[in-house]
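User: For my dataset I need records formatted as: sequence, then structure tokens, nothing else. Please produce one.
Assistant:
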Amino acid sequence: MIAAVEHGLAVFVVGFGLAYFFIGVILGYVRLRRSGSGRHTKPVIAQHDYAVFFLLAALNEAEVIGETVRRLASEPHATVIVVDDGSSDGTGDIARAAGGGRCLVVRRTMPDARNGKGPALNAGFAELLAEAHRRGLDPSRTLVCVMDADGHLSAGALGHVAPLFDDESVGGAQLAVRIRNRKKLICRLQDIEFWALSALSQFARVSFGNVSLGGNGQFTRLSALLELDGEPWSGSLTEDLDLAIRMTLAGRKLVSTPLAWVDQQAVTSWRRLVRQRTRWMQGHMTCGRYAPKLLTSPKTSNGAAIETVLYLSVPWILVLPWSILYHALWAQTIVNFVHVGLPIQGGVLAVTGYLIFLYVISFLPMIVAGFIYHQRDREVGWLKAFLIGHLLIAGFYVGMIAVWRAVFRMIRGRTGWDKTGRETEDPAAKARQRRLLVGQH
């Protein structure tokens, strides 16, 4: 009886996982090919008449903030608002020096500071509203872009993003993420995750108008943010996902484009990567509370509601049970070999078939991800894509560890989170930041 239940549960989890994965891959790949952008394309600089505010929540980001603000402040029609969330390393001064008159710095002090990204963004949003009112800007023609302190937009990104908002029903757009420092294995695996898997998933969700917003390269229409009850960003561990769901509930479309992207640093330590993914997983799982509202919302399309609920259910009905079943299946196989030997019926053929089955369900999605990565980055050859796909098993284990850590944190009522650290990338940029900071004093 127990074996039958385990078998049935395994079939359901594997079936759901593979179906959800391949449907997303196929829909995303079709949209990618139709856009004419299978990989990096030559930047197209297009004109637009939207006012753009870049909003950054920054806590001790001196290593990267100067270069980021300098780049953003050079964008047309753009104003940069940096929320210095109680930094102790001169982050705010570096940002102001790098952005000049196009950068506004909002300083937060304790006890208001360091209470999460959502509250910091809301503090910056208040300054943004005051500035938009002072200029007499039309909220429907004003875009708010949330960026991380290490985020760099691709050339001409605004020219590709702004036209998406010509559809008045569009409330937000999320760019795909590329990892800059992708030489080390841990960084390369994160690049595959973002540039191949997450990107195609997002392109697929454009069909339903419920693309998930992220914390970097997140564009929203100011009027759509003003339509929401309360402040735009919550105190959730994943304030970006929370905002996306609330906008979906409000009937707004959320879209993306393969023609622009944002790049950022990868996490370079496995320990810090697990901590980061634990926070993401816990936030994702707690957002499951929106499922009933999504399924009954009169403003949300059936497709967007169902797909969003399926997306929110992934940790609960896929990652958690599969983390147990996967190891149970392999353990059972090893026990059979050691204590039972080959099955009497079927012999070698049956054993070979079973091992192939275990290999396919263990590695097929990862190998497919490797080949998708090859399509997105031709510097990665076919053989390397095949081999590196198998190495994604490391990311699989990071996810499994993170989901169980998230469960235990939820049981214990823990909601705190650690900030992702940054690293200096360009010594010249670092020296330029120091000169700017010295020049201010």
